[in-house]
Design a protein that fits this description.
Elements lengths: L2 H23 L4 H25 L3 H30 L5 H16 L6 H4 L4 E4 L2 E4 L5 H27 L2 H22 L21 H10 L6 H33 L6 H34 L6 H12 L5 H16 L4 E5 L7 H9 L4 E2 H10 L5 H12 L3 E7 L2 E8 L10 H86 L7 H32 L7 E3 L1 H11 L1 H7 L2 E5 L8 E3 L1 H17 L5 E9 L2 E8 L6 H6 L21 H11 L3 E5 L7 E8 L6
Parallel strand pairs: 8-10
Antiparallel strand pairs: 1-2, 3-6, 4-5, 5-6, 7-9, 10-11, 11-13, 12-13
Length: 713
């Protein structure tokens, strides 16, 4: 493999990979697309040169020369187009003419008249490969002249723009001009043998480096990133050159020493396997050595972004002290970037920086003073960038990084210029943005922590004051509640005795103990008797409520056959049901239910209240009572066809003195204690009570469940 082939292979591999990288990093950017296509054209030239350097057959060499010239033809065309885009030209006439030149020669080389361009008879064996030799055809001479004219004119436009520009733009153009000039000088030496100048194209090795380095720096928009590009490109190029050299050396040694100078397909496979084995073993050590060497000779004293971020992150994650957070950020970043001064401005301190704050509310990108000056100089009219420039100059800030937390501006990094006079690189800015995202969280947490401490102190004082008031109020409420319970208990006891006496005397009168009564007298006495019964029930309910709230209600727990109890209670309501013209059904369980441990009197009271409640609020139809076992529970239910209950009323239905809306018109005697007592008694048995209804006019179903094995408290 000769040097022409090796340089072509390096050019092809490097430019192809770089073109793909540039495109993927900015596929929406027109400049990225143009530079990627330019790199692909150079790659076509490189791979073509590699194949030509290996081929020994003239017809195959001619085919690959045609492939190679696809890249050669469009290298100046795409280079001018990129310059056109980079410098912001508007007139497209010359661009169209240059593209016309490119497509003319592209089509011509694949037509039967290709000899006018290539001069097929002028091919000879030169530099261990088939090459065009002197003399060239007139059309080929015109092509080469046009090729150089386009390249030189593009550099001339770059030079003019360089003279007019300043600051960042001027630096960009300078590096771009020098890099491409060196690259084109090296690559253009390939034309010399065609004109009788037998200069070996050794300068082709310059081509793979400079377009990639300069292109990377330009497309990143800050040419000061040339140092990062050089570092990465040097390491990558070193790897490629080393691997290629290993391949060439292995091919030479094996072909001469082992295979006697015969380089066949079989030897290629063996060489490939050997090189692959060597690469697998030595790639990582080689990469690390090249990276260390590059850092040692090109980047002495540079900080390591990952280490800087790790050190800052370690401190920020361990403190909630705002002063420590700010001091750590200022000290670490100032030392790493070698800047004269850095300020961390927190949200509460940025009232005086209204112009900068307003800018970051609209745009989230960092502010670079040098870029602002360049953009302002390019605009003909006055705009807000002038005010920002004045603000940054007043603050002596060369770079401003926003601290954003979910689009909310928490604070700012204000950085002065570097002591060395160098500009901030893209790597610097990316590192600062990464630190800023962590700092925003840390500062916000620290600020909230301070506010919480202040609020906690104020709150504690207020809590202490309110606690004193509540304690006094609670003592008073307990006294009032105790007095209320005692009054209800006393009043109930005082009422129960005369009510019982009244009941007894009315009963005796109705039985005729003191003589017969007429029908009309009996009707009035029965009404008095029923009213007295309601009063007795109310008194009993009030006494029960008083005992429950004071914790004096006693339970006589014993095994209880709930089905027998329910059946007896249903029978007791038969007369009332018949009188109202309703039905009351009891669906007896098919199997005998297990007994529950409960107080018979209390459960009787619950069932009576639920049946009484269902019958009172049902005008037509009736109610159905049923029992069933479910897991380790016995479930009682009573389904009625009554007025139903809204979802809002269901929430408060089991509270004390709670009654549904409109029910007072149907049952004026109700107190709102029946369901409250039922709920309290069921809860005392460690059971559960609830109601289900589809709404007004759709009936209701009341449930309660009792555990089969009573749990311990």
């Amino acid at each position: 493999m000769n040097a022409f082939a090796v340089s072509g292979l390096l050019t092809g591999i490097f430019c192809l990979l770089f073109g793909i990288f540039v495109y993927l990093k900015g596929r929406q950017n027109k400049s990225n697309k143009l530079w990627a296509i330019f790199c692909f054209s150079v790659a076509v030239w490189g791979f073509g040169g590699y194949k030509i350097g290996l081929i020994k057959n003239p017809s195959e060499a001619l085919f690959w020369w045609r492939i190679t010239y696809v890249g050669i033809i469009f290298i100046p065309v795409l280079f001018y187009h990129f310059v056109y885009q980079f410098l912001g030209f508007k007139k497209k006439t010359l661009l169209y003419l240059i593209y016309l030149f490119g497509f003319f020669f592209l089509i011509l080389e694949w037509t039967p008249w290709a000899g006018l361009f290539f001069g097929l008879s002028n091919m000879g064996f030169l530099f261990s490969s088939f090459y065009w030799v002197f003399p060239p055809t007139p059309l080929f001479s015109f092509f080469v002249l046009s090729w150089f004219t386009i390249v030189l004119y593009s550099h001339y436009e770059l030079y003019k723009a360089f003279k007019k520009s300043f600051g960042l733009k001027r630096t960009q153009i300078k590096y771009f001009f020098l890099g491409m000039a060196i690259s084109f000088t090296g690559g253009s030496t390939c034309f010399m043998p065609c004109f009788g100048i037998k200069l070996y194209p050794i300068l082709n090795f310059a081509v793979p480096l400079y377009p990639a380095i300069v292109g990377y720096a330009i497309l990143k928009y800050r040419l000061m990133d040339i140092r990062v590009a050089v570092k990465r490109s040097t390491v990558f190029s070193g790897l490629v050159i080393t691997i290629t050299a290993a391949y060439a050396l292995a091919a030479f040694l094996l072909s001469w020493v082992v295979f006697g100078g015969v380089y066949t397909f079989r030897t290629q496979i063996i060489v490939g396997l050997i090189v692959a084995f060597l690469i697998a073993i030595g790639f990582r050590p080689l990469y690390d050595w090249l990276r260390r060497t590059t850092d040692t000779f090109l980047f002495k004293g540079e900080y390591r972004p990952q280490e800087l971020m790790a050190d800052i992150s370690d401190v920020l994650s361990r403190t909630l002290d705002l002063d420590i957070v700010i001091n750590t950020l200022e000290k670490q970043i100032s030392r790493a970037l070698r800047i004269a001064k850095m300020d961390v401005v927190v949200l509460r301190d940025i009232k005086s920086l209204e112009k900068i704050v307003t800018h970051f509310k609209k745009q989230k990108e960092v502010l670079v003073l040098e870029e602002l000056k360049r953009k302002h100089a390019e605009k003909a009219k006055f705009d807000n960038s002038f005010l920002l420039i004045k603000e940054l100059e007043k603050l002596k800030a060369a770079l401003v990084v926003p601290l954003l937390l979910k689009e909310k501006l928490v604070g700012l990094f204000l950085l002065s210029a570097k002591k060395s006079g160098e500009m901030f690189t893209n790597e610097d800015i990316k590192t600062l943005e990464a630190i800023a995202s962590q700092a925003a969280i840390a500062i916000e947490n620290a600020r909230l922590y301070e506010e919480m401490k202040d609020f906690s102190k104020t709150l504690q004082k207020e809590v202490n004051r309110q606690t004193q008031s509540l304690r006094k109020a609670n003592i008073r409420l307990e006294q009032l509640d105790k007095a209320k319970s005692e009054f209800i208990s006393l009043a109930s006891h005082q009422l129960r005795t005369p009510l019982s006496i009244i009941k007894g005397y009315i009963s005796m009168i109705l039985e005729g103990t003191w003589g017969e009564t007429n029908q009309k007298q009996k009707e009035h006495l029965e009404k008095v008797y029923l009213s007295n019964e309601r009063l007795i029930k109310l008194v009993e309910d009030l006494l029960t409520v008083s005992r429950i709230e004071s914790g004096r209600l006693e339970f006589d727990l014993q095994p209880l056959a709930l089905d027998n109890l329910t059946e007896n209670i249903v029978k007791e309501f038969s007369q009332l049901v018949a009188k109202k013209g309703l039905y009351l059904k009891y669906i007896k369980p098919k199997k005998l239910l297990p007994k529950v441990k409960a107080d018979p009197l209390k459960i009787r009271q619950v069932i009576q209240n639920l049946i009484d409640n269902a019958l009172y609020y049902t005008k037509k139809g009736g109610a159905t009572v049923s029992l069933k076992t479910e897991k380790n529970k016995v479930v009682f239910s009573i389904q009625d066809t009554g007025i139903g209950i809204s979802s809002e009323e269901q929430v408060t239905l089991f509270e004390k003195f709670s009654r549904g809306k409109g029910v007072t018109r149907m049952h004026t005697e109700g107190t709102g204690l029946g369901l409250y007592l039922a709920a309290k008694l069921i809860q005392a048995h460690q059971g559960k009570i609830w109601v289900e209804s589809k709404g007004k006019g759709k009936g209701s179903t009341f449930y309660f469940e009792l555990p089969l094995g009573r749990r311990k408290n």
